[in-house]
Amino acid sequence: MSSVLVTGGAGFIGSNLCERLLACEYEVISLDNFNTVYSPSIKRQNIIKAESNPHYLSIEGDILDTGLLTELFNSFAIDTVVHLAALAGVRRSISNPLEYVDVDIKGTVNVLELSVRNKVKKFIFASSSSVYGKGPRPFSEQHTADLQLSPYAASKASGESFCKTYNALYGIPIICLRFFTVYGPRQRPEMAIHKFTRLINDSRHIEIFGDGLSSRDYTYIDDITDGIISAINFDCNFEIFNLGSSNPVSLNRLTDIIGKSLGKPVYRRYMPYNPGDARHTLADILKAGTLLGYNPKTGICEGIMKFAEWYLRYV
Ligand code: NAD
């Protein structure tokens, strides 16, 4: 059985990924510090299903703790590292930039170091569409922005840069995956779809930053976990892939779809744009389609319906 270490394995993407990996018969170790950016009890709930599987192990710990990582790598033969642990979110990074430098840059380098020393066969880095900034659309892998719009985006660009350096120095095979606004069950409570669902369901006003015409390439979680698993199995030296849906949706349309799926009216309040937010995102997924066989299957109406069902049942 091939073994995968998932850092950030109790988070939104991580916990969904661990379940998919277990279903595909991988041996899975999750490392997560259950930080308080949002409730740790949500993350403990996220892993309950995986914990019933004998091929899953959850370790509570920090990616900055070199001693713990050394012990972990000494105790288990790890074939692949999927490095998801990070502080996510653009707006918070503007008020807490140094935390992002610590976790998203230093933490990434720490996990890279240990992966090289322990001869990991593949390192997958969770990057983000935010590295494209205001670049030309559709965003394609060779056009990373010169100007990063937030400390979060800068930390992801820096993480990619370290990945490239470690690959060149030590030959460790690395894939950077640029995720485009991921949504679905367990989405972080502060992310737009989750927040709008909560407010619309409670018949409260939602705040839209800008005119509502800004758009995002929302990507359903199952398509992202499919893409990660394809990347684990893809033989290469160093590659960057977009994982998006290539189907952008405006904020006005998104909130209409959420309202419809909940059977509730939508009360909008328009606010000034937020600095750091890209106005539009759109993934060019040709490369991922051609090389990874990546083929996102869940459209926005179906995906929002699934999210709303999960929200009404579990939150
Ligand atoms: P999340 O916050 O739900 O998951 C991240 C997990 O990492 C959390 O469980 C957290 O406790 C853990 N973590 C944070 N700091 C840690 C540390 N120092 N040591 C150990 N664990 C730590 O976020 P998510 O939405 O699941 O994002 C996962 C990854 O994907 C992140 O790297 C994020 O930047 C990236 N990403 C996410 C999206 C998205 O739309 N969700 C888009 C682009 C990129």
TrEMBL record:
Pfam families: Epimerase (PF01370). InterPro entries: Epimerase_deHydtase, NAD(P)-bd_dom_sf. The keyword Cytoplasm does not apply. Residues 4-244 form the NAD-dependent epimerase/dehydratase domain. Keywords: NAD. The keyword Hydrolase does not apply. It comes from the Bacteria. PANTHER family: EPIMERASE-RELATED. This is UDP-glucuronate 4-epimerase. It comes from Anaerobacterium chartisolvens.
